[in-house]
Specification:
- By secondary structure, the protein is an alpha/beta fold.
- The protein contains 14 helices and 10 strands.
- Helices cover 45% and strands 13% of the residues.
- Helix 1 packs across helix 3, helix 2 crosses helix 3 and helix 6 runs parallel beside helix 7.
- It is elongated.
- It starts with 6 loop residues before the first helix and ends with a helix.
Length: 309
C-alpha cells in the first residue's frame, strides 16, 4: 500500500499528485487508503519540513536572478523579467504591467515620450495611469489591422489629466513610396521634428522569420518578397535587422511612416517590450543593433536569451 511508504516518500507522492497533477484530497484519500484529514496534515508537515516548496511568481514583480545577468549578456541598461503565465494575450497584459512600472520609474516631468505601435506597446500604455506632466509623441503610423490596439489612445486620458500634451501622427504605417512618405512628413513636420527630442521611446519587437509581427499583413506581396529575400531576424518601429544587429532593407523603412535609426540612437532610453520563443532571435538582433537600451520580457524568453550566443 502507498500508505505504508516511509513518511517522507508518502508526503512527496501526495504533493506530486495534489500540486502538480491537480488531484483532490478526496481522490487521494481513496487512492492512498488514508483519510483526507491525514492528507491535509501530511501536506502541511511537508511544507514545514521543506519537503514541499511552493514558488509563486507574481507577474508584476521583476526576477533579478534573470534580469541582472540578462542585462549584462545583452549589454542593456534597463531589463525587467516577469514570470508570465497563460495565453499570448495574458502574457501581453502581464508584460504591459511591468513595462508601465519601468516607464513609471524612468519618465520625469517635462520629458518627451515616444510611443511606437503594437499590441504589447498598447498594453503598456493602458497601464500608465498615473503620469507626471509629459509630452507623448506617436513615432509610428497606425497599423490597419490594429485600430483596437492604439497605444496613443490608451494613454491619452492619463496624459491630459496630468496636464501633459499628445502629438498624434494620424497616418498609416505603410505608404507605398518614399515620395508619399516625404509628403506626409512635410504635412506633419512638427511631429516629425519631435523625433529629434525624445527622452524615452517605447517600442515592440517583431519576428519576420516566424511572421510574429503585425507588419506582415501591412505589406503587399512585393515588399514581403523583398524582406523574405534579405531574411531579417526581426524589426522594431519598422527598422529591419539580422541576428547580428546589422540593419537591413532600408528601402522598406523609407516607405513607412516611422522614425529612423539616428532618432533611436540619440534617444537616451529606448525600451523594447517583447517575449516568446519565436522572438528570441529578433530580440538578440535588436539588442545588437545598439538601438535599444532596455527590455521587458518573460522568464522563458530570458532563459532562452541567456542560452544564446
Amino acid at each position: 500500500m502507498d500508505a505504508e511508504l516511509p513518511e517522507p516518500q508518502l508526503i512527496a507522492s501526495l504533493a506530486r499528485r495534489h500540486y502538480l497533477e491537480d488531484v483532490s484530497k478526496v481522490q487521494l484519500a481513496k487512492e492512498f487508503g488514508i483519510s483526507r484529514f491525514r492528507i491535509a496534515r501530511l501536506l502541511a508537515k511537508g511544507r514545514e519540513e521543506g519537503i514541499i516548496r511552493l514558488e509563486i511568481i507574481d507577474p508584476s514583480t521583476d526576477l533579478p536572478m534573470l534580469s541582472e545577468p540578462l542585462a549584462s549578456h545583452l549589454g542593456l541598461r534597463y531589463v525587467r523579467v516577469i514570470g508570465s503565465n497563460g495565453t499570448d494575450t495574458d502574457v501581453r497584459t502581464q508584460l504591459g504591467s511591468m513595462g508601465a512600472q519601468l516607464l513609471g520609474e524612468l519618465v520625469k516631468p517635462g520629458d518627451n515620450l515616444g510611443l511606437g505601435w503594437g499590441r504589447t506597446v498598447a498594453e503598456v500604455a493602458k497601464n500608465l495611469r498615473h503620469l507626471p506632466p509629459i509630452t507623448v509623441i506617436q513615432i509610428s503610423g497606425a497599423l490597419a489591422a490594429a485600430h483596437a490596439s492604439s497605444p496613443i489612445d490608451n494613454i491619452r486620458e492619463a496624459v491630459l489629466s496630468a496636464n501633459g500634451y499628445i502629438h498624434d501622427l494620424p497616418v498609416p504605417f505603410y505608404v507605398r513610396s518614399p515620395e508619399m512618405r516625404r509628403q506626409l512628413f512635410e504635412t506633419h513636420s512638427y511631429v516629425r521634428g519631435q523625433f529629434e527630442h525624445l527622452d524615452t521611446a517605447l517600442v515592440s519587437i517583431g519576428s519576420w522569420e516566424h511572421k510574429e509581427t503585425q507588419l506582415y499583413r501591412e505589406f503587399p506581396p512585393s515588399v514581403r518578397a523583398r524582406l523574405d529575400q534579405v531574411k531579417p531576424a526581426g524589426e522594431l518601429a519598422g527598422i529591419w535587422f539580422d541576428e547580428t544587429g546589422r540593419v537591413l532593407a532600408p528601402e522598406v523603412t523609407r516607405m513607412c511612416m516611422t522614425l529612423e535609426t539616428h532618432h533611436l540612437s540619440q534617444t537616451p532610453r529606448v525600451i523594447a517590450v517583447a517575449a516568446g520563443a519565436k522572438k528570441v532571435s529578433a530580440i538578440l538582433g535588436a539588442a545588437r543593433t545598439g538601438l535599444i537600451t532596455g527590455l521587458v520580457t518573460d522568464r522563458d524568453t530570458a532563459e532562452a536569451l541567456l542560452d544564446a550566443h
